[in-house]
Structure formats: C-alpha cells, structure tokens
Amino acid sequence: MMVACLGGRLLFGRGESPIQTDLLAMLPPTERHPMAEMAVDRLAHANGDRMVLLLESTDDEHARAAARLLGKQLGADPAFSSVVAELPDFDLEAMLAPYLAHRFQLLNDQDRASLVRAGFDPAQALAKRLNEPFLAGVGIRLQDDPFGWMQHWLDGAPWTRSPLMPEDDLLTAHRGDLTYVLVMANLHGSSYDDGIQRASLAALERASIAMRQQFPDVTMSRTGAVFYAAAARAGAERDVHLVSVVSTAGIALLLLWAFRSVRPLWVAFLSTAMGVVCALTVTLLVFGQIHLLTLVFGAALLGEAVDYSIQYLCARSHAGATWRPLDGLRQVRPALWLALATSVLGYSLLAAMPFPALRQMACFAVVGMLAACLSVFWLLPALLQGPARRPMSVSLVTLAHHLQRRVVALTSGKRRGVLALILLVVAAPGWWRLGHDDDIHLLVSPPPELQAQESHIRDITGLGNGSQFYLVHGLDEEQVLQREEALAVRLQAMVNQGALESWTGLASMVPSLERQRADHALLKPFFVDTGNLRTTLTGAGLKPGVVDAYLAAWPGTSLRLRDWLTWPIAVPFRDLWLDGGAEGVASIVLPQGATDVALLGAAADGLEGVELVDKPASVSDLFGRYRRLASGWLLAATALVGLVFAWRYRRGAWRVLAPSVLGMGLSLSALGYLGQPLTLFHWMALMLVLGVGANYAVFLREGEPHVRHRPGASFAGVLLSALTAWLSFGLLSLSTLPALQHFGITLLLGIGFTVICVPIATPVTEHDTNA
User: Which residues form a coiled coil (predicted)?
Assistant: First the structure.
C-alpha cells in the first residue's frame, strides 16, 4: 500500500489531494428532470465551502464578545477568505429602495382580498396606517407608502421570517434565557481539499481555545461540508491503515509460516504491489480522483491479489528439486487464467451499477487482478529460478488433507443427501428471517455528533438543509413564477395547519407579471380620480409635496426577475434560480420545518412543472430497485460461470460450481440469523463470493493432478489463499463506512463457507483417503 501511494504521488505530483470525500460525487443521478440534479448540486455546494458556527450563552454580553473574538481570530488566518461575525455597515432602506418603482404592483393576500371586497374605504385604510404605534417589518417610509400596501407585502418576504436579527451588528437569536450569535467563515478553497481541511480546522481549534479561555461559559455548535469531509477522510484513513497494516502483517506471517522462507514473501508482495500500483494509477487516470469506498476496498484487495502468487509459490514448493520456472508456469497458467476470468466477471458486474463509487471499485479491482496475474506470468519465473529450499509447512498440508478427507467423506454416497437435508433445515430459518434496507446512509454514515450539531443550528437559525426542496421548471421565468405561486397557495395552507413552518421561494420576492398586472388593476380605480385621492391624503395630514410625489409615482413599472437578480438584496437568493439553457429555466423552493414528508409530496401533486426533489429518498429508491435486480444478476452470473466450467470440466462442472453456490446460500442464511437486512452491497459482495469461490475450486481442481505425491498439498494452497482473502476482506467488517461493513461481513461468511465446501470440487481417491 505504501508503494501504491508512492506511485500515485509520483504520477500526479503534489496538487490537490486525489481522495474524493464528497458524498454527492459517489451518488448516481436519480432525478427525473435533468435540472433537478443541477439543483441538488447547486444547493449542496452553494454554502459548502464555509463553516457555520453558532455561539450560545446565558450571558448576552459574553455571547457577543465571544463572537467578535472568534471572528477576529478566524479573520486573521489565511485559511479563510472572509469571515462574517460583525455585520458590515449597510442601509436596509437603500437596499429596498429599488422596490419603490414597483410599489403599485405588489400586494399581499390580505390587502388583495380587502380591495376586492365591496365597501373598501381608502380613508379608513389610511387612518389605520397612520395610527399604527410602530411600523412593522423593515420600515418603509410613510410618505412612500401611506396606505401600507408595500409595507404589508414586504412583511411577508423571506428575510423577515428569520429568527436571526441584527443586534449590535451581530446576527443574534434568543430562545428562553439563551442568546445565540452566528459566525460564518468562508474557506480559502474547497471543503474537500485535504490541505484546506487541515488548515481551516486547525485555525478553528486555535480560535476556539482562545475563545474558551476568555469565555468558558460560551459553547459552540458547528456545521459545514468541511467537517463532514474531514470526518469521512479520517475514517477512511483509519480503515486503510487498519486493513493494509493488519492484513499485510497477517499475510506476511501466514506466508512465512507456510513457506518458511523470506524470499517467497517479498516476491508475493512485489507481485501484489504491482497490481495495486497499476490499479491506483489507472483509476486515477480514468476518474481523476479516488472515492473513499475505493480507497478502503483497494486496501482489502491485497488479500485476493496475492492468490496468484501463492499458487505459483505452491507449485514451486511442491516440485522440490525438479523445479523448472517455465514448467511451473505452464502448470498454474490454466488455473490462473480461469480464476482471473471468474474474478473479472464478478467485479465487472459492479461496473453495471449506476453508482460512480461502485464503478470505480470495479475498475480498481479488474486492473489490480489483471496486473497481479500478469506479474506472475512475466515476473515471478525470472525471480524464482532455483527450487524452494524448504517444502510447504507439513502441519498446513496435514491439516488441509485431514479437512479435505472429512468433507469428501461427508459429501459422498448416501451421506450427501442426509447432509443436504440437514443444511436445508438449518439454513431455512435464516432465509426466512431475511429482510432488506435501502437507506442511503448505508453508503456513508456521518458522525452522530455532527448531525446533532447541524440539527441544533437549523432549529435555532431556521436555515434549511436543502435535502428536500421543490423544483419548479418551465419554458421561461414568467411560467416558472406562475407555477411557483400556485405551489405557494398549498404551502400556505400547510403553514396554517401547522404542518410547515415556512418556505423560501423567488415568487415571494418577485411576483409573476400576471400577478403584478392583476394587483395593479385593483389599485387603478383609486388613481383614476386623483382629486379624491389627493383630498383623502391631504385630509389625513400629509403635506402637499409628499402627496404630489406619491401620485406622480403612479402607475409605476413591473418588476422583472432578471432585473431583480442584479439587486444587492437578491445576493443570498440567487442560487434559487437555475438557467438550464435548452432545458428551460427553474426555481428552487425550500420548505422549512416540515413535519410530514408525505404532505410535502402531496403539495406538488397535480401541479404542472412542480415536483418535490428528495435526494436521499430517490437514492434509496434506486438502491431498492437495484437490490431487487441483483438477485437476478447473481443467478445470471452463476449460470455464466457454470457454462465456462461446463466447457472446461464437462460433467464435473457441478462439483467446481457447488462450493460457490453453497457458500452464497449459507452466507444468506447466516445474515438472516445475524439480523442483517439485505442491502445492495450484500448482493454485490455475494457476486464476489461467487468469483472467489470459483477461484478456489479451480485452484484445487487444476492443482490436484500435480501433487498426488503429496496428498492435501493442493488444498493447502487453497486454504492459504482463503486465509489471506479472509483476513483482508474480513477486516472490512470493522470499517467506519456501512457499505464496506456489509461487504466485509458477507465476504467473511462467504469465503469461510466456500473454502470449507471446496473439497467437493475434486474428491480424493480411496487410496488418498486411506493414506
């Protein structure tokens, strides 16, 4: 593994780290509308390269002072491009001023209903506005909006619904006796870059220590992609170290014990290292980066790639003084080619999955197996010219021979049927207990501590997570805004019912032209007779100059989305608009505080151009579809391997295939007894069990005729191969990645059951049994 890392570093230099920790990069496209994937990526990365920090304390002054100190510390560190703690000076009135030109096109639902209702009295509406003790919301000047229509419309804008309000130049929220202050730090690069992660997290730790020293009563919650990416990377590094170091040490001890010499050890590792280096190099060339799943899986591949070297080393050991490298190569070549073909078949099925991570794993495995096998053909004969100084461990061969005889005895004659019945009775309850689970979090499970902090920040600040949103698409901006307004009617009904806290959408800030024209038409009757309106306004005490300016502003102009997007106040919401070119345009509507996901979906039912996008649910659905298909693929793969064996072994093909089939069946039963629900990754692992089990059966079948002088020697080589694979792949069951845990547990069971059944492939003769 060190050689592999060195090869990758030499090939790709010292640029950005090739390890991909972005979860979205591991997932396939799943949405029906092509712009939905664009929206998912937009929301995931819009705020992905920043830290969101929430400070809390029962002491208002301490919370604010701590936020200022933290902002100052982070702002002075080069790891961050900008830090927002104390808000810059801004004039909210100036930011809202562009709306004034469109004030006669902007009405909220209540004012619209009042104007439609018979008997509306403008003088009464004016008096109500003038007698309000405090102007609500952002405070539009009275002379610019004497009837309060624009003020009422602005009160419903998304920026007025946030629990965070500017206090003493800090974004502050209050709940009970606690004060919360928000600090945001933008990274100086991608959250998924290893160097950026280390620098920013170290800077945050230093700033946190300084803050806690002065304000020990202030606690901090944190969220951001950088924390999840760093946790995923740390988990992967732990897994790689565990799998590579432990499996390497274990395999080394096994080879030393089996061959009682250091030379076979380094030759086997050299061949395996070549396979891993080639796999890493080709994977990086093809994909540009390597996923966490591939990285850890590649470390475990060591145990299977060494199988080819082991078979060659076994042939050398058993040949004794008569050893000739090319004769040994001719002896093992048919078995290695056949084993390679079955392994490539099993791994290639992974490439049929739509998941980028699984395709990458397939590429890594196929290239690694092929390179390791070819190195045996081209490298090992040159390195192992002389005969082995010592034969294979007698205790290993004796153990293998004893186990082989026992299995053959139990599977011969009438005992075979009895054993089959016993196995069926024992396995059936396990099969009956099998369930399934397609949760997306089986791919990568974020640390619970980070999830809890993110949930806490979302609860206090009202910031959504973007995993569920509405995509509203159409041919042009007008059609999109009209469709969003139709959705807003249903969302408001959910708010009224308590099923939703609020939502954020562009139509609440830029109504459709159709809506604006309708609102303008409602106000037009009052401006037809400007004399009456002037009398009403001056009678209420407004100065003539103010009245003249207000009347001169009529009829105003319509507000267009493309113009609004250029305004400063639109900056936080620009990511909600998508321009898909030939695909049309779309907006994103973010629901917040939903209590029933089914109601969210129902709100979009029957609305043209509106759909609820739930990326986790859609990926889980895809997991489920492919899990259901995987059983059929496994049957097809088994049949294909059976045809290859039939071509090679004729009537004896069933014996070579039986160990894999039994291994898979018993593994499924064991998973049922263990209470493990089946996932797509269990089925993928079973496909690998098919390939690995077929390898072992082929090794035994092909190797047995060459070692009749030493009964059990061929099966000893199979046991040694199985132990190395069992050690490497079994360690995946300890991985922090749930998907690899399922791989590891299934392969641990599958390899164990299969190797026990392998003697079925070539029963020993009566002479050998009595030996």
Answer: none
